[in-house]
Amino acid sequence: MISFKQLPIEAKAAVAAGVVFFSMMLSRSYLAEKLDFRTRRWLLRLQMTLFANTLMLMGSLHVWRSTVTTFTRSSAASSFCFMLWKIAVFTFLALAHSSFFTLLFLVAEEPYFFSLAAYTCLGAYIILIFFLFTLGSVEQAYKFLAGRGSKAGTGNKNRTALKPVLAVVLTVVLTVIGLLNASQPPTVNSVEIPVHKLPSTMNNLKVVLLSDIHLGPTVGKTKLAMIVRMVKALKPDITVIVGDLTDAEAKIIRPAVEPLGELDSPLGTYFVTGNHEYYTSDVSNWFELLKSFNIQPLHNENVKIVSPKSTSDWFCLAGVDDIEADVLRYSGHGMDLKKALRGCSSEHAIVLLAHQPIAAKWALQERPDINLILSGHTHGGQIFPLNAGAYLLNPFFVGLYKVGQNTFVYVSPGTMYYGIPMRLGSRAEITEIILRSP
């Protein structure tokens, strides 16, 4: 048998990732009740950080070999410029790997420059890996089709050198475009949605949908204040936040949350959890903090939204916990549609807040009489090439979907971004939803 020492370094990284993943499952299943809250929270975050870094190590080795090792036998390998290039590549990879650690140590009211640089490198890392893999695949296909897979020559060497250069150039260009796109204020997208059984007195009711703000290492108070100003300018009747508001503990990032206290929608502001709220392991404190800003969490519960024109007219606004709470075995939490819709009959319109589109699908399978579901989570893929994965993994990707005769699902592409301060193939959005009665 081959010993662990004899395995190539990529295989060692894969084994390490497997060990970390196993430890995550073990701690969730058997240690959750034995560890105190704070220890459990730090253990989960550390495990997730180590898991991500062990997976990235395999990609980083490929990047180093493609952009550095490939050129070590060239005449320029001994030059000062090549030495600077090696330092630049090493720094780039080190920053990309450190991005996940900033969530543990560098979260404050406003983002640190180091966090922004680290997550920018992470975004560029993802793009670079994609182009290196794609161009490498094209090169291998060309060799196979040309029948020269075993031949080596000057032309092959030139193509081998061209591949990483082209990948780096494309990565730099797309990174700059992505940074510029994400630096723009969210676009305001106005959508009219007919809601079956919505009272005529509530026709044209305006709901502003926010999702995936991700307060944390790269999103702080300034950006949140901008979002709040934009929401107030729309003068919504109701404001809803459908999860992933934060990536940090309430106590640490409380000053950055203060702008939310300025939201003053006359029929209320409501919140449901996303998967990232459960990653903070601090949901209870977040609920209390949001309540202090007059934002009502819908923890598998519902409220009656009464028409300002007639107290006898109303619809049911319900919210469910994110499905990740069940995966994480988060005590007292988890998607419970029956509890959330208790008292909501098909005689009145039903609007459901559910962070993940897969939860929307499950909800409609159980209660097809739901008229409208508002979700987020996908970010519209946020950056290329992740868009394709997000599209394939979610039953509803982004925008408005009609399901059956009287049901609609709207998936927000996100109001900010997660970690990586870039947008490629997607745009941050504040959604202005106009409810129409039939």
UniProtKB/TrEMBL annotation:
Keyword check for Ubl conjugation: no
Transmembrane residue ranges: 12-30, 42-64, 84-106, 112-135, 161-180
Stored SUPFAM superfamilies: Metallo-dependent phosphatases
Entry keyword Membrane: yes
Fetch the InterPro entries from UniProt: Calcineurin-like_PHP, Metallo-depent_PP-like, Metallophosphoesterase_sf
Listed A to Z, the keywords are: Membrane, Transmembrane, Transmembrane helix
MF terms per GO, please?
hydrolase activity
The name this protein carries in UniProt is TMPPE metallophosphoesterase
Q: Which organism is it from?
A: Vireo altiloquus (Black-whiskered vireo)
